[in-house]
Design brief:
This protein has about 120 residues and is mainly β. The protein has one domain: Sandwich (Immunoglobulin-like), CATH 2.60.40. The protein contains one helix and nine strands. Strands 1, 4, 5, 6, 8 and 9 form a six-stranded mixed beta sheet that branches. The protein has a three-stranded antiparallel beta sheet with strand order 2-3-7, with no helix packed on it. Strand 4 and strand 5 form a beta hairpin. The longest helix is centred in the last third of the chain and has 4 residues. The chain is elongated, with a radius of gyration of 16 Å. The model has no long low-confidence stretch (mean pLDDT about 95).
């Protein structure tokens, strides 16, 4: 594994009120991730790892191949964006993790996904 600053990760999260049921401790969130290849060579996302933590400190780990059924190849200067979701039992939580990537020579590396907050709107302030 190599340490690479080649890929920038930006995250935007949103509470989905219409799919949530607070009375049943079900809070639905969507998040949109944008990956930008800042390097000089193409890279491919082949897997992901998430650590999801709710407000009670309960942690859930999720890992698997690709994202939203894809293993995108991102050209230099290019980007890939996708939207996915998470369901929590609390109105506040966090997500963090990493992407497993490979370059054109097959060299693998991780790209960190910084901690981001999942929160219903009135809890953000």
């Amino acid at each position: 594994m190599i340490n690479s600053p080649r890929v920038c990760v930006q995250v935007q999260s949103m509470y989905i009120e219409t799919q949530s049921q607070p009375e049943s401790d079900r809070y639905v969130f969507a998040y949109t991730i944008t990956l930008r290849n800042l390097g000089r060579h193409p890279v491919q996302l082949i897997g992901r790892y998430w650590l999801i933590t709710n407000a009670n400190g309960q942690e859930t780990e999720v890992q698997g191949e690709g994202v939203v059924g894809e293993k995108p190849r991102i050209l230099p200067g290019g980007e890939f964006q996708y939207t996915s979701g998470a369901v929590l039992e609390t109105p506040l939580g966090t997500m963090q993790g990493h992407y497993d990537m490979v370059d054109d020579q097959g060299q693998g590396f991780h790209v960190a996904i910084p901690v981001f907050r999942l929160a219903i709107p009135f809890l953000i302030n």
